[in-house]
Write a structure and sequence with these properties.
- There is one protein chain.
- The protein is mostly helical.
- The protein is built from 16 helices and two strands.
- The longest helix has 27 residues.
Length: about 300
């Protein structure tokens, strides 16, 4: 479960794995601050360009919330376990209709069986490399909201089927995936749509739709797919932790709109999964200093990572 121990000494890992409540709080404040700042930018200078910029920034920070929930799933967002659970659930997970507990169970299984037949994320990577036309169709569905609407519709239909039926709810909870859906129905839905309502109350009636729901249905879905492809698409089907996952170098624009909070250092995360995201660059440097640079699966950019997956 900690492949990095085969390449690094405990004395190298220990300081990198130290958590911080202050750092966790700053990450949360930054993520929600960018969302608020994007809306404020449009409020001050209302025009199509600032509206588009707000959608892109908010969609990227919705991915940021998913990344910070992922940190909490590894108990790495805060040093204090209770803060990991509360913030990871209420300020990261529910706002994007994700369940921390269900995600943790699913995700740790992914770490245990990365790029093997038992990997629950294999469905996200096993069809790569693929044709450029196939990737183009997927990206168009994401950016036009088709992917997000399909996902949201399935969740709403689950709500209709379960609403008021205690027996059905209990049956759903017997399966981890359905437990996620039933929890999402009764807790995450009010949080997600409540945020949209608050944004509308701050501005005009349509602001919540434009600056919360639209980013979620479009840019968030797109960058989530790009992230998934970059991390494991067209990597080795093996147990080699240096080859079955990919780190992608990201410049300022990519960090802003596609890969916030050091999510691009995915190989390093798999090496030592409880290292906080803000220390992953240091873990990367430690691995390179150990002479592993030439063996590590690293893409020079997200464009290069997508090219390996078929976007040529």
């Amino acid at each position: 479960m900690t492949p990095g121990k085969a390449y690094l000494d405990p004395s190298d890992i220990r300081p990198l794995a130290a958590r911080s409540d202050v750092a966790g709080a700053l990450l949360i404040l930054h993520c929600w601050g960018v969302i608020g700042g994007a809306i404020a930018l449009f409020a001050i200078w209302p025009n199509p360009l600032t509206a588009l910029l707000a959608v892109l920034l908010i969609g990227s920070r919705q991915l940021g919330l998913a990344i910070l929930m992922h940190e909490a799933a590894h108990n790495a967002l805060f040093k204090t376990r209770a803060l990991n659970e509360f913030v990871g659930t209420w300020l990261c997970g529910w706002p994007i209709m994700a369940d921390l507990a269900a995600y943790r169970h699913y995700h740790l299984t992914h770490h245990r069986f990365t790029q093997t037949d038992n990997d629950p994320d294999l469905v996200l990577s096993q069809n790569f490399p693929t044709m450029r036309a196939s990737l183009k169709r997927k990206f168009i569905r994401d950016l036009t909201g088709q992917t997000g609407i399909k996902q949201l519709r399935s969740q709403i239909m689950m709500f209709i089927r379960l609403a008021g039926d205690d027996d059905a709810i209990e049956a759903a909870k017997s399966d981890a995936a359905q437990a996620f859906k039933s929890n999402t129905i009764y807790t995450a839905f009010p949080v997600f749509f409540g945020i949209a309502l608050v944004i509308s109350l701050i501005g005009d009636w349509w602001w919540g739709i434009a600056f919360w729901i639209v980013p979620y249905l479009t840019w968030f879905q797109f960058v989530l797919r790009v992230r998934n492809i970059a991390e494991h698409g067209a990597t080795e089907m093996s147990e080699d932790p240096l080859r079955n996952v990919r780190t992608t170098y990201a410049g300022p624009l990519a960090k802003t709109f596609v890969a916030p909070y050091w999510v691009n250092y995915h190989l390093e995360h798999h090496m030592v999964m409880h290292v906080p995201c803000w220390r992953l660059p240091r873990l990367h440097d430690a691995l390179v200093k150990r002479g592993l640079g030439d063996r590590m699966n690293v893409a020079s950019s997200y464009r290069a990572a997508l090219a390996e997956a078929g976007w040529r």
